């Protein structure tokens, strides 16, 4: 009797062990898709159906959990999740490279712009124009420019009698502000030679705020010689402008013939100021503004 009970227990245990081993083997086959490799002629649909049946028959604690929304790659048994992660990483790398390219392009454009901006006033042609202007502004012809020269220039144009007291005072104030912005303090000892003059103007040309105020005194020069208040200068009035600068009538005639582009014999205030400012700003040798202050010196 006892032997019979023991035998039935052993048989039950052996049957349970056999079922468990079969279930484990089935799960291993599913995980590796051994059946597909051994029998390639079978359709994936048939394998899938039988596999699902085996999984349903397998105890819950033996089933291998599969992440949601994931599939198994038949040939390798690797989750597509890894593939998605790899693609996401590649996309991130491409975006990173794209951002890097954008940064490089931005930096290149910024450097090109800075280079273009910082080169204003570096040509020999521009320096030649500034040496010409230095000679003109050296009214007392002592080789240097001081504020005394600015005051002499103011006096010459004011003495023509075509500026009223208010305009004359404004003119002098603008000359003072121009001197201090460009050369510093107004003292008898602040003397500016040609090289220093070019250096200071070069700095002003490349300073955004100072750049905008170049030639602020030009309208006063125009109004001083526009004795008929017509708003235009003819050749005789332009000769008067040149005489105040210490230049000859011949120089005035040559310059006027060049800058009177449309040949109507008149120069408006707008044209006068534009040409006077352009003289400071451009490095293009073809611009007619190069003759605004008379013929350029040779050296």
From TrEMBL:
GO terms for molecular function: calcium ion binding. The gene is 101900783. The lineage of its organism: Eukaryota, Metazoa, Ecdysozoa, Arthropoda, Hexapoda. This is Sarcoplasmic calcium-binding protein. Residues 92-105 have a biased composition (Acidic residues). It comes from Musca domestica (House fly). SMART domains: EFh. Keywords: Calcium. Pfam families: EF-hand_5 (PF13202), EF-hand_7 (PF13499). CDD domains: EFh (cd00051). Residues 125-160, 247-282 form the EF-hand domain. The keyword Calcium applies. Residues 58-114 are annotated as: Disordered.
């Amino acid at each position: 009797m006892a032997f019979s009970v023991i035998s039935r227990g052993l048989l039950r245990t052996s049957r349970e062990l056999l079922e468990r081993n079969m279930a484990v083997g089935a799960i291993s086959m599913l995980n590796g898709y051994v059946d597909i490799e051994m029998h390639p002629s079978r359709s994936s649909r048939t394998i899938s159906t039988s596999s699902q049946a085996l999984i349903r028959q397998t105890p819950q604690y033996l089933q291998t959990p599969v992440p949601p929304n994931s599939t198994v790659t038949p040939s390798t048994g690797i989750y597509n999740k890894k593939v998605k992660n790899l693609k996401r990483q590649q996309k991130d790398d491409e975006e990173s490279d794209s951002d890097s390219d954008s940064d490089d392009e931005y930096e290149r454009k910024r450097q090109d712009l800075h280079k273009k901006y910082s080169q204003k006033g570096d040509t020999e042609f521009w320096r030649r124009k500034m040496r010409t202007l230095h000679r003109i502004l050296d009214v007392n012809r002592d080789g240097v420019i001081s504020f005394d020269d600015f005051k002499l220039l103011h006096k010459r144009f004011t003495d023509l009698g075509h500026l009223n007291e208010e305009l004359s005072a404004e003119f002098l104030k603008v000359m003072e502000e121009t001197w201090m912005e460009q050369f510093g303090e107004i003292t008898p000892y602040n003397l500016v030679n040609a090289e220093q003059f070019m250096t200071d103007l070069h700095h002003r040309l490349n300073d955004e705020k100072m750049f905008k105020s170049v030639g602020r005194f030009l309208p006063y020069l125009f109004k001083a010689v526009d004795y008929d208040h017509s708003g235009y200068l003819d050749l005789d009035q332009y000769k008067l402008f040149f005489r105040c600068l210490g230049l000859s009538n011949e120089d005035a005639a040559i310059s006027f013939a060049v800058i009177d582009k449309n040949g109507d014999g008149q120069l408006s205030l707008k044209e006068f100021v534009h040409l006077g400012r352009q003289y400071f700003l451009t490095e293009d040798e073809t611009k007619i503004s190069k003759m605004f202050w008379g013929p350029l010196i040779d050296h």
